Every structure is written in structure tokens, then in C-alpha cells.
Here is the input.
Amino acid sequence: MIVCLDSGNTRIKWGVHDGLKWLAQGAVAHADVGLLSRLVAEWPQPEKVVLANVAGAEAGGRIRQQLAAWLPVFHEARSEFRRAGVTNLYKYPERLGVDRWCALLGARALVGTAAVVVMAGTATTVDTLDADGNFLGGIIMPGVGLMLRSLAHGTAALPFAEGDYATYPRCTDDAIVTGVIEAQTGAIERIFSRLADPAADCLLSGGYAEQLARHLVIRHRLTHNLPLEGLRHLALET
Here is the structure.
């Protein structure tokens, strides 16, 4: 049994895998990290526990505290130059966010084609894999929620919009929501078009993935908790 944890900016996603399938998955807010202790109470000692953490050393320490009984089999993932069929062409491979790295590993395990890998959470990252498994690079931009909040906090007259997407928005809330979705999906589609590969795929994960997927005009698939998939494959090689 392998336990995988993805500690992001907002939540800690976790999954328990028996080697054939996911037995359970869930998420807790960082403020509720104490709930992770239930994993130790509810599951037997795993062969490995693998953590990807972008929330900082303090958050990582709190996670270890709750899983103290499993520390002998605890491993923290790090971005590398090459692993599990992916070659990391980042200028400094070790500086690539480990959540992005794990998502790329998960994507490569799911599809053997060129792919655009989208993580739509607090931030939106759009990363490109070629058909040979080379990570060519990617972008980082504010996520849907951050974009909405930036307009509400940075302007005197605009609200935190709770509108709907519209082809031709005719009220301010709809105009803001539509603008944010168009900005996000437009960036994804531009990057996808650069692959110029008819076999390429687009994989989306993260809290805003479903919202963005509804408005994409390119081939795409939803892949929930993609970094957990990458962590699982990483665990098999460590």
C-alpha cells in the first residue's frame, strides 16, 4: 500500500493506493491538517508514504507530525532532471515546482502522446510535454479565484463577481467571469496549438478544472488529482 500526499497552496490532497487501484482519496485544508491523523488510525502501515509539498517547510512539518507513526517509510518528492519517462528541460530542473513535476509524471503515465498539462488551482499552470516525454516548459498565471479577487480588491467600482459565462456579457458580473474564463482557456488553447501534433492531448486537474473544461474548444480530458498519479509512479521507482 502506498499513501500519496500533495500539499498545495490551499489544501492537502491525499490518496491510498493498493498497487492496482485507488482505495480512497480526499483533501483537507491546511488549517485542518490535524484530520490527517485519521489516516494512521484507519489504514494499516503502508509500504511507502510520498509527499509533494509546495506550501513551505512549516506545512511539511505539520504533515509529518500528524503522520508520525509512518515516518520510517516517509519520502519527500523532489523535482529531478529525469524520472519515469519524463525529461525535465527546465533551466534549473530542481527549481520546478514539485507539484508540476508530479503532474507531468502522472500525465506521462496516463498518455504516451504529446500533452499540455493544466493544473487549475490557486494558480493555473500550463505545461507542455512532447511525444518523447520532454518537458519543454510552461507558464504560471493567477488562478480563476485570484483573478476574480484581483479585480474586486484592485478597483474601486468592480465587485467580486458571481456572474455566469456568456458569449456576449451584458452585465458587469458576467463580463468579469467571462473575461477570466476567456483569459484562462485562451492561454491553454494558444499553448496547445504550438504543439501542432494531431495526437496531442490536454489534461486538466485541480479545483477549477471542470469549470475551464466546459469552455475549451480543444480535445481535453479531466484527470482529477493528477499529482497523486505522479507520486504513485514516483513511489514505485524509489
